[in-house]
Amino acid sequence: MFSGIIEEFATVVAIHQDRNNIDFTLRCSFVDELSIDQSIAHNGVCLTVVSIENGTYVVTAMKETLDRSNLGLLKVGDKVNVERSMMMNGRLDGHIVQGHVDETARCIAIADADGSTYFTFEYKQDKAMARNGYFTVDKGSVTVNGVSLTVCNPTENTFQVAIIPYTMEHTNFQDIRLDTIVNIEFDILGKYIARLQQLA
Predict the structure, then answer these.
(1) Which residues contact 49 (CB under 8 A, 6 or more apart)?
(2) CB-based burial of residue 154 (10 Å sphere; 0-12 exposed, 13-18 middle, 19+ buried)?
(3) How far is it, in rounded angstroms, from Cα 151 to Cα 67?
(4) Which of 80, 114, 170, 180 is deepest in the core (most CB within 10 A)?
(5) In a structure prediction context, what are the per-residue pLDDT tens digits for the chain, which is 200 residues long?
(6) What is the C-alpha to C-alpha distance for residues 107 and 25, in angstroms, rounded to an integer?
(7) Alpha-carbon separation of residue 124 from 47, 97, 165, 176 (angstroms)
(8) Is 176 helix (H, G, I), strand (E, B) or coil?
């Protein structure tokens, strides 16, 4: 489980295709603290460390993950938001993030907010998914590329988030442009409430 508070971004240093899987080799400042089998969120996707060598680590993404996320679009040199799993004695500064990306969204607008920046994202409109809790609500939580954010101005298939300068500097939001594809994870609380209503 994660909180959506990004520790830093890792840099992709190698990509290797293994049948339907992709192995990503990354470098970040805390490689020496990692262990095999550890879970790390990459742009919000929970992946397992499978190898550590020469100041880098390797994680594997399977086809299901690649189909639902933007990881398949990564190139060598790209920055990836990373967060290690929550410690049970820590503060939940963001919100409950599972690291199970629901789908991707596309950036359709970027606007100055007098010091901060508004990003608007559009995702696939699907009534069946919405009935299962895959939607955003005003002032609710959403995870974008692993970052815990507050929703503004949601519609049926768009939402806006405001990014402060600190977040811009310390995450790969600094690389998001119009048409950039991002990973989104909807709030797990909404999914449970939607499911309970179906069973009532």
Answers:
(1) 34, 35, 36, 37, 38, 39, 40, 57, 58, 59
(2) middle
(3) 25
(4) 80
(5) 899 999 999 999 999 999 999 999 999 999 999 999 999 999 999 999 999 999 999 999 999 999 999 999 999 999 999 999 988 777 777 788 999 999 999 999 999 989 999 999 999 988 888 888 899 999 999 999 999 999 999 999 999 999 999 999 999 999 999 999 999 999 988 888 888 888 87
(6) 27
(7) 24, 21, 29, 19
(8) coil
The CA distance from 180 to 149, in Å, is 18
60: β partners = 23
Residue 150 structure tokens:
């507050």
92 in Cβ contact with 86 (< 8 Å): yes
Tokens representing 181 are 């594809």
Question: Is pTM, for the whole model, over 0.90?
Answer: yes
Residue 185's SS3 state is: strand
Helix (H) or strand (E) holding 167: helix 165-170
**Residue 155 burial (CB count, 10 A):** 12
